[in-house]
Automatic annotation (TrEMBL):
Protein name: Nicotinamide mononucleotide transporter family protein
Family: Belongs to the nicotinamide ribonucleoside (NR) uptake permease (TC 4.B.1) family.
Locations listed in the record: Cell membrane
Phylogenetic classification of the source organism: Bacteria, Bacillati, Actinomycetota, Actinomycetes, Kitasatosporales
Pfam families: NMN_transporter (PF04973)
Length: 213
């Protein structure tokens, strides 16, 4: 474990840690696989969470705890996509837009969850250096992954909202590679959002026309 948390190299004055770098590279692969709607998205996400748990354990307990939740949701996503495969002609899951009820439920859950987790972090200072932004990222990540597991296009938007806070928070806490990767995440998320958006529209149009998607 100590080897994983050792310094890999220095970039622009920032110390890059092996576990931080490896976990986030796996995270980028996860995002690319998610864009391709591949079932491998979830095993790679689980592995990324496990490596980042090592990166944060003993230093940022709240972030380490987030990775445990990420791994649990990854298992749920793998199970859900395994059930939904074949709905599209290419054998992958078929993206869809969430209903207004689903959107309202996710926004409410994100708001309530962020407040609850932030209050927990404030009550137990050892869990987080930045309770509110860390809680926002924690809960936002879970909501985004849940929406992805349910094949909702909106999961990309949720990731963008997480990125807006994740970039400065990671740089501030000394996880430079995470910060750099979050910037790349933003570009990949925009690309993935466009692809899923267009694909969901095409699938809906084919369904209305009675043509297999």
């Amino acid at each position: 474990m100590s080897g994983l948390n050792s310094e890999a190299f220095t970039l622009l004055g920032q110390h890059i840690i092996w576990s931080d770098m490896t976990g986030n590279i796996l995270g980028l692969i996860t995002l690319a696989l998610g864009w391709r709607r591949s079932l491998w998205t979830w095993p790679v996400q689980f592995l990324s969470g496990a490596v980042l748990f090592v990166a944060f354990y003993g230093h940022l307990a709240g972030s380490a705890g987030k990775q445990v939740v990420v791994m649990a949701v990854a298992l749920y996503g793998w199970w859900q996509w395994s059930r939904d495969r074949g709905r599209a002609a290419d054998g992958h899951i078929a993206p869809r837009f969430a209903t207004w009820r689903e959107r309202a439920a996710m926004v409410a859950a994100a708001a309530a969850g962020t407040v609850a987790v932030a209050l927990l972090f404030e009550a137990v200072p050892s869990l987080s250096w930045d309770p509110w932004p860390d809680a926002y990222i924690f809960v936002g990540t879970v909501v985004a992954m849940y929406a992805q597991a349910r094949s909702m296009v909106e999961f990309w938007i949720a990731w963008l909202l997480v990125d807006l806070v994740g970039v400065p928070l990671n740089f501030a806490n000394g996880y430079a590679f995470s910060g750099f990767v979050y910037v790349i995440y933003g570009a990949l998320v925009l690309w993935g959002l466009r692809d899923w958006w267009l694909r969901s529209r095409a699938d809906a149009r084919h369904t209305l026309e009675g043509v297999p998607a």
